[in-house]
Structure formats: C-alpha cells, structure tokens
Structure of Histidine phosphatase family protein:
Amino acid sequence: MTKLNLYVVRHGQTYFNIYNKLQGWSNAPLTEKGIQGAVTTGQKLANIHFSAAYSSDTTRAQDTANIILKENNSAEGVTLITSPFIREQFYGSFEGDDMDVVWEKVGAPYNMHTFKELVENFSLAKIRELMKAADPRHDAENNTEYWQRVEQGFTLIANNPELHDNDNVLLISHGNTILSLLERYGDGKFDTRVRPDNGSVTKMELADGDLTIISYNQ
C-alpha cells in the first residue's frame, strides 16, 4: 500500500475574500497580504521535501503554489500540476455575489439567514443541495456532482507513477473544499464551523484512495 503525505494549503487571501464575494470557479488575484501570507507558508514548509505539487487551475491557487515552491529548499525540478478537478465548489449563478446575500437566499426557505446558521443545522453536503435548488439557473454543483469531480483530483495524485510510499505532496486547495474533506474524512474530530485560514496547512494521508486527516488549519 502506497501512502502519500499531503500538505493541503488554502490559497492566499484574494480581493474577493476581502470583498466578501463567493469565489468558486470565478477568480480574483491575491492581495499583497495574500502574497506575503504565501511567502510565510512557504518559509514554514521550506525544509519539507516535496516530490510533487498540485493545485487547482485558478490563478489564486497557482500563484500560491509557485510562491511556496520558490521558498522551498528542495523544490528544484518539481513542476506544478494544475487541474480543474481540484477547483473549489462551483456556485453557479451565485459566483461573485455578496456572500451574505447568497446565504440569505439559500437559507430563506428554512428561516435561516446566515452561513453560520446553515452549518449549525445542516451538513455541507446538504447545503450544496440547498444551493443548487436556490440557484435560479440550477448550475451550482450538488453534492454528487461536486464529489465526482473532486475525487478525480485525488485519483490523479494517487496514480502519479513518479510518487512512492511516504512521499510528500504539496496541494493548494480552497476553503470550502478543505472543510468538505474534513466533514467526509475527519471522523467527526474537527469542527467544520471553523474555516481554514488563508495560507493555513492541513495535513492528510492518502492511501489506496482513502484520506485520513492528520491535522487541521495549522
């Protein structure tokens, strides 16, 4: 059984983050704080030997990955692999909208008005279903669509023929995706109401297609 050590990093802060806009497949550049945060994360991981590096194909994830690799002491020869499978959840016609307005619309049928209320009453899987129903065009990913895509990202990593047992892999991901992984694979040990910080590191182990969460939001 091949076990891979995944260092899953949430991308650096973007302008959509500070503008409180939903940012799934849509994109916004890193802020200066986001760039510096990626540098700090890179310095924290500077002595980890990465055998491979992956990110979603959004520029915020790619830029974060490249900054971290630049700070790494042994990343020479590591080529960043990007994939749409690793993107954040797709929010359909709500992409780029004010988050507070969107969650009000999603929660309205249940007399809920904030994302906090929603996560205190529903799983993230259920919230995806509610969002697709609330999306006027119904383009937002439901839970099945989301996981069918994301699982292909982990299959891509697991099937890399150049990776060997106990290799370290850098993976630049997104806030709701990291929370969703915690919900699905964390065995209830982590509080999914606590969002990962931009630039934070969550350690996971990938073995035979199964994920184990080692630590969160470090």
In short: The CA atoms of residues 125 and 184 lie 9 Å apart.
